[in-house]
Each structure stands twice: as C-alpha cells, then as structure tokens.
Amino acid sequence: METSDREYCELCGEPIRGKGTTVLYEGSIITVCDSCYSKIRKYSKPAQKQEVRKPKQFVSNAFVSKPKYNLSEDIEIVDDYYKLIKQARERMKMTQFQLAQKLKVSENIVKRFELGKLKPTIDQAKSIEKILGVKLIVPVENNGAEGDREDELTLGDIVRIREGRK
C-alpha cells in the first residue's frame, strides 16, 4: 500500500521508486529518480538531505544600517553651506575636480555648490561632511514656531489688505 508521503522526482515529476538520489545540481539540492540521476550524473554531486539550507533572507542594507540622523527629526542644511564647502576644500588643498570625484558628481555641481546656486541634497551634504570634515546638517529649531504664527501673514490677510479691509 502506498502512502501520501511518496516522493516525486524533482526533474521529471515521476514517483520515485526506492530512496531516490539527492544531488547538488546547478546550485540546487534536489532529489531525483534513478533514471534522471543517470542523465545528470556527470554534472551533479551527491548531497546529503541534511545539507539542505534555508534560502537566505534578503535584507537591504538601507533598512539594517542605523541612520546617523533621526528621520523623525527635521534636519536642514545650513544657510552658509557654500562658504563652508569652499573654505574646507581650499583648506584641504583640494581642487573642485578632486572633490567632485570623491562625491561622484560632476565638477560643475561642485562649482554650483560653492557659488550657492545649488543646494546639496541631504545625502550629498552627509558625504561632504565626511570628506571635508565640516558640519553642514543641523536639526531644525522649532523654538517659538507656534508663537510666531500670529505674526505671519496669510493669503487671506493679503487679500484683506489689498481690498482695504482690516
């Protein structure tokens, strides 16, 4: 009498008579029937069933590594970033081209950073901090933010001013 625990050949799908043969074939450990084993014998190695490994679970480094800055905390790049970048680069006697190579951006991007025409992204700012040893990223200060709201103009205020209403 046959049981439902019957093994099937992982190549041809036929039921395996006897024990079958467990082999390492093209990077996978499979159990095959004698007929299939005779066809792949040249290209496979015998393997033990205990060697069956669980597939490695892919975990991206982006989720594993701990961020330097707390994402819930607002951060920004300092206003005088262009001066800091230029001064630090010149202090290190580095050319714009050399800095661009280290940042993996074009030299034109570095020129635009130093002229203040282009603000680096947070990731670029982190790289610049690491290369030049300057502090470009600071947490956003929320002190007095709510108190200042009363002094802020809204679009509705501007409309009222233009129409002469108070």
Structure notes:
- The protein has 166 residues and is an alpha+beta fold.
- Among the domains are: 7-50, no CATH class; 80-132, 434 Repressor (Amino-terminal Domain) (Orthogonal Bundle), CATH 1.10.260.
- The protein contains eight helices and five strands.
- The protein has helices spanning 34-40, 61-64, 81-91, 96-103, 107-115, 122-132, 145-148, 155-163; strands at residues 21-25, 28-32, 44-46, 75-77, 137-139.
- The strands form two sheets. Strands 2-1-3 form a three-stranded antiparallel sheet. A two-stranded antiparallel sheet has the order 4-5.
- Strand 1 (21-25) and strand 2 form a beta hairpin.
- Helix 4 (96-103) crosses helix 5.
- The radius of gyration is 33 Å and the shape is elongated.
- InterPro entries: Cro/C1-type_HTH, Lambda_DNA-bd_dom_sf, MJ0586.
- One of its GO terms (molecular function) is DNA binding.
- This is HTH cro/C1-type domain-containing protein.
- Residues 85-143 form the HTH cro/C1-type domain.
